[in-house]
Design a protein that fits this description.
The complex is a heterodimer of chains A (111) and B (101).
Chain A: H1 9-14, E1 20-25, E2 29-38, E3 44-57, E4 69-82, E5 87-91
Chain B: H1 10-18, E1 23-28, E2 33-41, E3 47-54, E4 69-71, E5 76-80, H2 88-97
Classes of the chains: A mainly beta (111), B alpha+beta (101).
InterPro entries (chain A): Lsm3, LSM_dom_sf, Sm, Sm-like_LSM3, Sm_dom_euk/arc
Organism (chain A): Mycena pura
Protein name (chain A): LSM complex subunit LSM3
Chain lengths: 111, 101
Amino acid sequence: MENSSIQEPFDLIRLSLSERVFVKLRGDRELTGILHAYDGHMNLIMSDVEETIMIVDVAEGAPAGQPATVNVAKRKMEMLFVRGDGVILVRLPYCRICRCSCNQVSPPSRT
Amino acid sequence: MRHNFCPLGSLIFSVFKTLTDQQVTVELKNDLSITGVLKSVDQFLNIRLDSIKVLDEARHPHMMAVKNCFIRGSVVRYVQLPSEHVDTQLLEDATRRGAPT
C-alpha cells in the first residue's frame, strides 16, 4: 500500500528519488529536476534542472495596491547541488497518493 | 530507525570528494558565480577552488586578480557539477540506504 510506506516527512522525499520533482527555494526561486540524492539537511543533487527566478518589480511612486510587474527568468543546468538551507519545499509534480495530476501531495488518509 | 543519516551529511560530502580536480561552478547567495577546479572540500561543504573565473567579471571587477579561493559552505546556493562524473544510480542507492557512497 502506498500510504503505509509514508511514515515520516522524509519518506515522501525518498519516494521521489529518480523522479522529477518541484523544489521551492528562498529568494523567489523554483526548480524542477530529477532528484538523485538528498540528506538530512535537505541538500539535494538534481539533474536536468530548470530554474525559474521571479523578479518582482514594484514601480517607483506607484500607488499602493497597484499590481507589481513580475519578470520570470529561466535557465537550465545539467547537474546541480542545491544547499539545503535554501529549500522551502519539495514536491512531486503529480499526486503521490492517488497518482492523479492534481498537483498536490495529499496527506495519507487516516480512515 | 529507518533514516540512518550520518550527522555530518557524509553522502554529499563523499560526492564532492569524488569530484576533486573537476571543474565546477559555485553560485553564491549574493549571486556571484565562480567557475574553478575543485581542490578540496570538508564536512561543512566549505570549498577550495583553483584557477577561478568569475562569470560576470564586469559586475565584479574586484575579483579579476583572484586566482584561487576558499568558499564558506554556508554562503553557497548551488554548485553546478560535471554530470559525466556523477553516477546517479549510485547516488540514489546510497541515498535509499542512508549511507555514504
